[in-house]
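tool_call: predict_structure(chain=1)
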Amino acid sequence: MSEKTMQGKTLFVSGGTRGIGKAIVYAFAAKGCDVAFTYASSADTANEIIADVEARFGVKCRAYLLNILEPLTYKDVYKLFDEDFSRLDYFISNAIISGRAVVGGFAPFMRLKPKGLSNIWTATVEAFVVGAQEAAKRMEMVGGGSIISMSSTGNLVYTPNYAGHGTNKAAVETMVRYAAAELGEKNIRVNAVSGGPIDTDALKAFPNYEEVKAEVVKRSPLSRMGDATDLTGACLFLCENGSSWLTGQTIVIDGGTSFQ
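tool_result:
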């Protein structure tokens, strides 16, 4: 049984209905943390997670509809959050886009198009900025907090068709460092968690999924693909007291693949 070391605290994570985001919701709830998350389309899935989390861990859990391609609507989501929760301690920017929204952004270099690239920028960098700004306002009222942007090693290691995403992951990691430099005086720490290819629905949507998976297993000294739960430990660490002097950094969790 997990120790309830985060009782009385609240996490807000974007994109919490599947993959990494869902794993984060459960990991923090297991520590006694109240949890809010966003979803893109399925209210039914969100409500199922809420019911399961509250029943299993005895914490408060709520979900809000968010279109990550319209980052300013974060402000409306946070107003709903304020009606449900009295404090915010941790914010994790995790939501990503896929499908039609990334057409022209997920492609070989010579087929990249401004619209797809712009959408990835909006969902990755602009959404982090607005989400973190709103979070910081609330964290300041409780004496500080921790902000995390999820990233990926696609900005360190060549991954076919990943130029649009990889470039924007590099950009958001830079934004994290700037945010850390300016929010430290408010006792708010800002870091990134960069994952290697993780076996999620988002990765399975890649047309070359099997090829990517085989290459990751081959490259990793641990001889396996990453799982969504492999990233939750770093997120917990960055929100707990053991990392109280750690800010402006990117923690890479990639099964050793970026060294190969």
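agent: The beta strands are 10-13, 34-39, 61-65, 90-93, 145-152, 188-195, 250-253. Proceeding to next step.
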